[in-house]
Amino acid sequence: MKITRRKFFRVSAGAGMAALTATAVSPFLGVVNVAEARTSKKSKIVPFRFVVVGDTHLYEMPNHRFDKTFKKAIDDILKMKPKPDFVLFIGDLAQFGKVKELEKGKRFLDRLKRAGIKYRIIPGEHDWYLDMGKTWKKMFGRPYWSFDHKGVHFIGMNSILVRDYWTARNMSPWERMLAIAELECHICGLWGVREKQLEWLKKDVKNLRPDTPIVIFTHSPLWDYYPRWNFQTEDAPQVREILSKFEKVIAIHGHVHQVVYNKTGNMVHIGNLATAWPWPYPPVELPYPKIRMLRVDPGDIFDGVGFASTFIDDTFLGKMKYETWADLIPEDIKDGVPL
Ligand SMILES: [Fe+2]
Ligand SMILES: [Fe+2]
Predict the structure, then answer these.
(1) The domain that contains 208 carries what CATH number?
(2) Looking at the CA of 221, which ligand is closest?
(3) Which residues face 50 on adjacent strands?
(4) Domain containing 37: what range?
(5) What domain count does the chain have?
(6) Helix (H) or strand (E) holding 23
């Protein structure tokens, strides 16, 4: 049998994992126990599935390779049986926030609409800083929203707002955009949802009962993963505080372009894949090291990328399955990550 590099990593990871099994599976066991405890509870959730796709980073030039991977994602979503209830686009539709890039992205997304699949969308930093969200808002409306679906309260927020780093530096819109498009922008400062959205969130959840199932979408993680790359949201502690009254919150984010998972209090966090490219893991320990993707073949445009489908059951247990076109996901999370 030919052992490829990918296979070698998987075999060695598997051997290491067997030795760790006794302790390392405990996070999942906790989730299972909660499920058992909750099944007797009367649930208002009608089980359903939704899809998360994002970080497509489209360029204006035609037939760019990122068009191909986004097209494949949309094709796959359209083939899903049964159809997902809706699709959430989790930011970074465009690469430089140009009108043509955003228009191209909307054309892709509108294929879903034409097939009867609704989509909701939040912005990423790449969509925003050329014209401060003007085109994006014209196309997609308000960048924060909520809706109820089959017993679950869904929230989307714009988490990529920074303080003004451009006026004092006399930067043009293009220079402002190029700066924030860097993975490690030294002048941009930390991102956040900021006061207006925090006030809105408080009002939005004020009258909801603590047993309301909540799913929140943001472009950046709502926990401190790696602030140097803005793998964080500065005012995430306030968001978490507002949502702390709920029994359980599922928080889904983009931006990191990789498989990553964490828990903070009542919140489970999970990162989505990009369709454009995978980021390497930053040099910090992963909170749940077993939940990570395998190494990527840089020569294959369909490796390291994809999207995710999430199933929500009637006890508000979620299962997020990474949909990829290569052998990217380790065996033990191949069928999905329990949320
Ligand atoms: Fe991105
Ligand atoms: Fe991003």
Answers:
(1) 3.60.21.10
(2) 2
(3) 310
(4) 5-338
(5) 1
(6) helix 5-24
Expressed in angstroms and rounded, the spacing between residue 173 Cα and the centre of ligand 2 is 18
Q: What does each C-alpha distance from 137 to 53, 101, 121, 132, 196 come to in angstroms?
A: 19, 14, 11, 9, 16
CA 198–ligand 1 middle distance (angstroms): 24
* Best CA proximity match to 56, nearest among 95, 109, 100: 95
- This prediction's pTM: 0.88
User: Which of 274, 192, 196 shows the shortest CA–CA distance to 234?
Assistant: 192
Measured distance CA(280)–CA(283) in Å, rounded: 9
Say what the pLDDT of residue 328 is. Answer: 93
In the prediction, which pLDDT does 43 show?
A: 65
Give me ligand 2 centre to Cα 107, in Å. Answer: 21
Distances (CA, A) of 151 to 32, 47, 48, 215, 251: 21, 9, 10, 11, 17
pLDDT in tens, 62-79: 999 999 999 999 999 999
Q: Separation of 55 CA from ligand 2 center, angstroms?
A: 7
Tell me, in angstroms, the distance from the centre of ligand 1 to residue 92's CA: 5
If you measure from the C-alpha of residue 91 to the centroid of ligand 1, how many angstroms do you get, rounded to a whole number?
7
Confidence of residue 299 (pLDDT cuts 50, 70, 90): confident
Please name the residue that has the structure tokens 């320990």.
Answer: 285
